Amino acid sequence: MIRKYTAALVQMDTQNNKKENLDFAAACVAEAAGRGAKLVCFPEVMNLIGRNTGEGGGKESVPGYSTERLMAAAREYGVYIHAGSVTEEIPGEKQSYNTSVVIGPSGEILAEYRKLHMFDITLADGTPFLESDKVRPGSEIVTVETELGVFGLSICYDIRFPELYRLMALRGAQILFAPASFTMPTGKDHWEPILRARAIENGCYVLAPGQIGKKPLYTAYGNSLAVDPWGTVIARSKDRPGITYAEIDLDYLDEVRRQIPSLKNRRTDLYGLTEL
Fold it and tell me: Which is catalytic among the residues 18, 38, 44, 88?
């Protein structure tokens, strides 16, 4: 296992030309690899937001147009890639999955994760906003062991559900991914506190690359963050698309867990769910 390495968080202003979005992503992989990064991670819906005006279509299979380009980049530069997420086609269905993949340095897909929690709310004016109308939730908590540590996978709205992250930590997760396309109103108040809490609660690194810029229905918050197991923000993006670098130190993670052994001090004898 590689105990210390550089991770690159790519903040993107993804728009409605899939090829151009992926050209930018591939250039970022090349730049990050040239800086010595072992891991490159992308935001939610990194490949397309809006109706595609270029090649590659809309919804796609996994592997497919977008993931295959990232697989080729991982293989060319010998890096791990967390591909943020793409909109995965469900054959014969109107719904799609919001899907992350982890790609190894040989270009192979090591893990797939489909977003579990749907953003189904009623707005202040009484209007419902139901992500589940278009997106089908996944059904599996996903961790994957790599030479960079054990990765735990999540997407955007998932960060509001601490149970998910505790379960991943109990499965051995050391690096928690939270690619997102957070909106400006919730981002400015909730983004950083929640991410820091998930890191502190579980003694994990949290890597959270985000979207930035004006989208068809909202303005994305940006502020891509890397948080260490103590809860310190160790890297924050600038207010534009680009790469932010963070140093990962798994020896430090072990030290924090020894200092604050909350995973070991759990009272599982009291945690059974009861009907309320």
Answer: 44
The residue from 89, 115, 204, 215 that is catalytic is 115
Domains of the chain listed by start with CATH number: 4-263 (3.60.110.10)
All residues at 6 or more sequence positions from 9 whose CB lies less than 8 Å from its CB, including other chains: 41, 207, 208, 209, 224, 225, 226, 235, 237, 243, 244, 245, 246
156 is catalytic: yes
Q: What is the pLDDT along the chain (276 residues), one digit of tens a residue?
A: 999 999 999 999 999 999 999 999 999 999 999 999 999 999 999 999 999 999 999 999 999 999 999 999 999 999 999 999 999 999 999 999 999 999 999 999 999 999 999 988 886 677 787 899 999 999 999 999 999 999 999 999 999 999 999 999 999 999 999 999 999 999 999 999 999 999 999 999 999 999 999 999 899 999 999 999 999 999 999 999 999 999 999 999 999 999 999 999 999 999 886 655
Q: Among this protein's residues, is 41 annotated catalytic?
A: no
Q: Is 44 a catalytic residue?
A: yes
Name the residue type at position 42.
F
